[in-house]
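Ligand-bound model needed. ISJ.
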Amino acid sequence: MSSPLRALTVDLGPVEAGGTFDDLASALNRAEALCWVRRGEGHLGFGEAARFTTRGPDRFIEAEAWWKQFTLDADVEDPLQHPGTGPLAFGSFAFSKTSEYASRLVVPEIVVGIRAGRAWATQLTADGRRPSERELRAAVGRWTAKPEPAASNGAHLRVRPGRLGEQRWMGAVASGVRHIRAGELEKLVLARDVLVEDDGGIPRERVLRRLASAYRDCWVYGVDGLVGATPEMLIQVEGRTAQARVLAGTLDRRDADGAGPGYAERVLAGSPKQRHEHQIAIESLTTALEPFSEALNAHDEPFILELPNVFHLASDVKAELAEIEGHVPTPLALVNALHPTAAVCGTPTKVAGDLILELEELDRGPYAGPVGWLDGAGNGEFGIALRGGVLEGTTAARLYAGCGIVEGSLPEAELAETWAKFRPMLEALGVER
Ligand SMILES: C=C(O[C@@H]1C=C(C(=O)O)C=C[C@H]1O)C(=O)O
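Prediction:
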């Protein structure tokens, strides 16, 4: 059976200051837009041509099989042929194979993208209709138009405790440390949630725009109710090159302010505890990536990633992918092999995963799961859904944040770290803390 998918990509020309799109975030004016933006570039998706949902341990492989079938024999007109043009889907996956959250691929009707200073748009149809350039240009204008300013003034904002209150969550951290001291595992990542309510309504598009302007070095994602700005890249595939950004080791900027130059380097790069935690995270990624790679390199020295809320100890890993049985591994095949990394689960993975379920008492849903996009040519980017939350209805957002726990971890310090990690979302929602 041939695919019903048709795609038409149109070049919209170079982006210019004051032009139609000088920054992709300026086109983010619709509450339901699908979003993947960093430093003004990326993709926005509007409308819905198709959707696939699944749950369980095979969620990545099932999504991969669906996408492959869906794009097979697609009728594609794409003069640009670079990563992201032609057929494209946004994806969000549950952290856990036992989660209630439906992992999903969403194929928008219209994609607007910017890459290397050039804008384009794609129209996708799955119902036999032939996309037309005239219709596509008109749809882009409609979907990206600026509406009248409106919405909440943030006067009704409340932050409520989530599944575990602060005391009980610190108890869970202390318990995690005991399991580590007993030699059952080396590292464990424990997360918690808080609920932000705004009776005036939460304007999703404004949250995304604020994240995109404040966190320019992060990947700002929006897939259905899931929104956030992650600094951590699980895997980015472009042709045969794969890249990842591993983070582990965190310092609240508020603790570093006024401490003088070099403080973050001393506290993060100079601390054996932080270096150890970071090393575990890199090894978990490189061990999983190695079987797919011809060449793999990670810098020996991690660098300090400076974000508006925190500093992280960071390492970029780059791999030249190997051809396996004549095929380069796809982004979702790699996600399947890499998720969950020690950065969001722990080591050993199985012991940490079981303890997370027991101690957090939380369904993480899409938090700490892969989020991103893929195209029909084997390119894609999947970040780890951190520094984000899930909108619940129109007036609430559940935010999630976690910390890597090792032998020397202190519950109070970890609690403070979760507040620093909630900050991007709290600020985007208008909460002052
Ligand atoms: C788990 C989170 O962040 C992860 C944990 C880190 C740490 O413990 O130092 C740093 C970055 C992320 O890998 C989160 O933001 O929720």
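The first strand starts at residue 6 and ends at 14.
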